[in-house]
Amino acid sequence: MTCKALCLCVPVALCVLVGACSDPSTAGHSDLIVRATTDKSFQDVVDELEFAISERNFRITGANKIGSALRERGYKDFPDMQVIHFCSLEYAREALEIDPGYLAMMPCRITVHVQAGMTVISLILLPENHPDPRVNAFARRMNDMLREIMEFALEENAPGTASTKPEPAGSGP
Questions:
Q1: Of 42, 77, 125, 139, which is the most exposed, with the fewest CB atoms less than 10 Å away?
Q2: Contact at 8 Å (CB) between 13 and 22?
Q3: In sequence order, which residues have a C-beta less than 8 Å from that of residue 64 and are 6 or more positions away?
Q4: What is the domain class of 9-22+33-158 according to CATH?
Q5: Cis peptide before 166 (omega within 30 of 0)
């Protein structure tokens, strides 16, 4: 899979969740992953992300509650981890009319996990190096919205405060 692919597959998303890919030399896609931490609770962050996603006319298409699923299987101390999948059919149509192969980039995903007592949000951005400049313009618009979604969860909307600004994945927890 090339750097152009946002669909990094579940194993890579899991790797991001547990922090194993925090080293840019192992991630290969570290320029597409933005990570930030907050002292807000896991559930507050998930709730605020879901609200921000819906406020921008995206629909949540799924959620992988990895932490709770592993606890149900007997790993009682496994921390909270979740992948939130979301999409907008109108945005999808816009991109797919230009390049049907862009389907591999969908749906958008944000991950949330707890590490060292902090809640970590990881966001996978769309690559902005497509051969068609219209796709790059679309990716820039989408990335701006994706960053807004993350930043909403970092703001003081609910209990807790953001402790860091979003940064590339290799430079934080």
A1: 77
A2: no
A3: 10, 82, 83, 85
A4: alpha beta
A5: no
